[in-house]
């Protein structure tokens, strides 16, 4: 009987393909999640956008040409500056014209007119208002500015003549960091209280669930007002920052706690938990080493999706005057001046912070969707 030998190309897979399959089957859960996340286009774009936003917040004092206390009554409600390249047909680089304000006798609104005889060139790495970079060392270096006597307002000014671009950049340091701190605290509270409720059960579970139901039954805005009223109005900005973080955290842990409780109830009767108890493993070790890691991927996705809610919560509190107060600022504080239709109609640039909030919330939501798909073992 003769045997037929197949060509090597049909009997042996390429070496690179075999190594790739081996690395796939030997990869950990987190490695597989990372690979699937990188295939999610919107998640990749969101990571780039969020990285850019947090980079701006980290170097906000350097990027902002002004500070939070600088104002000029002569330039209040000024529109965004027009940056020019040519003057009378001659290229002279980046520059802005001088501004002169006039009162429109028909609408009684202040209008700004460019003074073509005044040219102020745009300069980079200029000296400006002094600040403490990352609160470590004093400096007065700023990324850009104009020659002395001129003004540049990329996003216009507010009702006090303060540069909206600078306030928006510096406000991102509050609006982008409070959600992280608040989410982390609520994350810890939700896991801790939910695990205790689901693992031990009994009377303790009943009490915790009733407390969660009571907290969930309160309307958000009256509860914010009640908790904010307990914070003194004259406390320093740093303490106010901490107080807002704690307030948001105390109101947002209940949903995660219920989810954790449900997961613990379904897992605590599994065979590996019974084996751990028979082996003498303590309850704390069972919770930390066996139960929580069993659905850690879900917790990470929940953490990512909770951050947009925190951003909207801080923005809403500051918008209502219950959060950050002057001289500090956040995106919610900036949106306070865009409360009425007349203000938006006359000064539409005051809505620019709203687009920053929408962009950040969408980026976190898309990233959360990508993580959710990556954590799903059936996809």
Structure, explained:
The protein has 2 domains: 97 residues, no CATH class; 200 residues, MetI-like (MetI-like fold, Orthogonal Bundle). The protein has 17 helices and 4 strands. It has a 4-stranded antiparallel β-sheet with strand order 1-2-3-4. A hairpin with a 3-residue loop joins strand 3 and strand 4. Helix 7 packs parallel to helix 11 and helix 14 packs antiparallel against helix 17.
Topology diagram in text:
Layout: H1 8-11, H2 15-26, H3 29-38, H4 41-58, H5 60-63, E1 84-87, E2 90-103, E3 110-133, E4 137-146, H6 164-175, H7 178-200, H8 202-217, H9 220-229, H10 237-251, H11 254-267, H12 271-278, H13 283-291, H14 296-319, H15 331-334, H16 341-346, H17 352-375
Antiparallel strand pairs: 1-2, 2-3, 3-4
Helical stretch tally: 17
Q: What is the total domain count?
A: 2
**Secondary-structure arrangement, i.e. CATH architecture of the largest domain:** Orthogonal Bundle
Order of helices and strands: HHHHHEEEEHHHHHHHHHHHH
Class based on secondary structure composition and strand pairing: alpha+beta
Q: Gap between N and C termini, in Å?
A: 48 Å
Low-confidence spans: pLDDT under 50, at least 5 residues?
A: none
**CATH H-level superfamily of the largest domain:** MetI-like
**How is the largest sheet built, in terms of strand order?**
1-2-3-4
